[in-house]
Amino acid sequence: MASLSQQMSLYSMTRMALTLGPGLGFLIFLHSGTLNMRPDILDLDNRVRDVPIYEINSTYDFVIAGGGSAGTVLANRLSENPFWNILLLEAGPDEITISDMPLMFPTLQLSPLDWQYQTEPGENYCLGFKEQRCNWPRGKVLGGCSVLNAMLYIRGNKKDYDRWEAVGNPGWKYEDVLPYFKKSEDMRIPDLMDDKYHGTGGYLTVENYRYRSSIAKWFLKATEELGYQIRDLNGEHQTGFNLPQGTLRDGLRCSTAKAFIRPVSKRKNLHVSLHSRVEQILINEDRKQAYGVVFNKFGTHNTVFAKREVILSAGSLVSPQLLMLAGIGPEEHLKDKGIKVLVNSAGVGSNLQDHAAVGGATYVLDKPREFENETLTFQLANIFSTETVNDFTQKKQGPIYWLPVCEVIGFVSTKYQNPKVDWPDIQFFLSSAADSSDGGLFGRRAEGLTDELFAAIYENLIDKEAFNIYSLLLRPKSRGRIMLRDKDPESKVLIYPNYFSNKDDLKVIIEGAKIGHQIAMSQVMQNFNITFNPNRIPACKHLELFSDEYWACHVKQITLTIYHPVGTAKMGPEDDPSAVVDARLKVRGIRNLRVVDASIFPYIPTGNTNAPTIMVAEKASDMIKEDWGVLDNFIDSSENPEILQKASSDGKLRTAPSEDFNAKHEPKLQKTPEMHDPDYW
Ligand SMILES: Cc1cc2nc3c(=O)[nH]c(=O)nc-3n(C[C@H](O)[C@H](O)[C@H](O)COP(=O)(O)OP(=O)(O)OC[C@H]3O[C@@H](n4cnc5c(N)ncnc54)[C@H](O)[C@@H]3O)c2cc1C
Hints:
Layout: H1 4-37, H2 39-42, E1 59-65, H3 69-78, E2 86-89, E3 117-118, E4 135-136, H4 145-148, H5 158-166, H6 174-184, E5 185-187, E6 204-208, H7 215-225, E7 240-242, E8 245-249, E9 252-253, H8 256-261, E10 270-273, E11 276-284, E12 289-297, E13 300-312, H9 315-325, E14 328-329, H10 331-336, E15 343-344, E16 356-358, E17 362-364, H11 380-383, H12 386-395, E18 408-412, E19 426-430, H13 443-447, H14 451-458, E20 466-473, E21 481-483, E22 494-496, H15 503-520, E23 531-532, H16 548-557, E24 559-561, E25 593-595, H17 610-627, H18 641-647, H19 659-665
Parallel strand pairs: 1-2, 1-13, 2-10, 5-6, 13-25, 14-15
Antiparallel strand pairs: 3-4, 6-8, 7-18, 8-9, 11-12, 12-13, 16-24, 17-20, 17-23, 18-19, 19-20, 21-22
The structure holds flavin-adenine dinucleotide.
């Protein structure tokens, strides 16, 4: 006879299988409706053209590996110079229509647009997940994680960047990076358009989410009841709460592919090659100089040369992997994998930091009559409807523009952080959904929660209104590491996040969970007769509910990544042996090679990481122009045929137009080389 928990789990799986049919049906209906009725989403005139192999030149000025949040910005900014030609190599395809829709954000995980990484098991995290591994989604698509992310636009704290500079990175203090945040930005929230902390007219549009539940206003009232202020969290002060700002355009996702590549997709000096996975960085071992890459497109291995630089923008997991495969990394580890060491760079792959959160802090509503007709929480069965599809496709409104997972966002200081300093140590997502809200179809699957645990704590809440409070640790002291599995570039790296290996991290996040609980149980929220999920996590059942020990057990069981791995090729001064790149993002020990993406962060910022990554790429673009002596405001060559004409007689912009210009700006290694002879380079 099966135990009760086994029976529950079997029931839960059967129910999920039965719900999947209507769920998939809805997605197909939504997709086909969008194809027919929303040409603005298809945007066929501006989509990037995937350059076929036979049109790819053998040499470019810059070859960028990875077209994610950072790579797309670089491709845009570097190709502003009509005298340079740029190749952007992206392993994934272009964006799809579904990815434009905020509500669909969880459905992209474990899809073909996701690399589908998993962490190695550990003692302190993800214990309630399948094989005790946390799922780590990463975008495999033009725009990278900016296509999979929750679109939250948060820059971090002033002190984060002041600290970056203080540890030996000149030019990275807040005052220096603020102009680059503003440069990208096209702030469209009316009250903030003239604000000194915001920019308008940039490529990246920022808006509030177009649809929200009415619970958002109650959440805000609850935080005010606790004494927090409602304010712009990207402005003068960070502590407080607000409705989230999102990288959104007309209510839809504004990925970096949409923002930075589509407007310049016609530039002749920018080639974008999709489905192109970089496998190897080519390095002249004597000169210690990068000169190209090998990439795989549809099974063919292609070599392409970089006259000036190879730039790695493949994200925090693959940029360090490519470095290690090229012999740049910790000596012992490389030798162990049979890789010849070119530069013993101890920091490659280490210093891994991420934002971990308390998952599964679920509260159930017992809605009084007066709220009967209000949508307070997300419930898949109510939302996945014909009306929703029609609203979206015909009226450009409705729940498809919704991000239930973060109705309200906020930053607070626990007792471990001096609140006067305004450098919060906990972030909150106040969500109008719980894992039960979608019947386990998307959230549970994306997280990797075991069927047994899901059945035990959620199955009897499926038809109930419930919400989650996510408290996440902003500045972890724990450090993780990524390592090579083997020498094969197609192998995924091994990820050791080491969440909570430093006990202080656990203490802070426990305080965060307690503050989250206070918000949920505030007087204001009692309008809805809120109770904490009455079902207990089996592994924590023996502990006194809401004690420190309980929360510690809870967060170790349901540990959520907030998807912000950074720091695995950190920027730092010469006397720091763990610094992989210098403050100009040049790889130490190898010429003509930079890393420009979230790997270079020395410390994780106090907030989400997309905007900081875009800022890094904006700043890097200027540094690259400066280093090659061409920091000008170039005119977009696609709109200026005269410049194109002047720049190159064959229209390909391979060479600079005048001898003067050549003499001043061309790299040392230009002639007509036997390019396949590595000695030349
Ligand atoms: C599910 C999810 C939700 C998130 N939510 C938010 C949020 O709401 N707000 C926020 O600020 N941040 C969020 N983030 C984090 C943020 O999006 C990332 O920190 C940021 O996008 C990282 O940018 P990147 O350029 O370093 O890497 P990526 O954007 O990952 O770009 C790397 C690119 O390189 C490509 N690539 C990898 N290997 C190769 C190779 N060998 N050859 C060629 N190309 C390769 C990848 O396909 C990818 O396109 C989220 C992330 C995820 C995954």
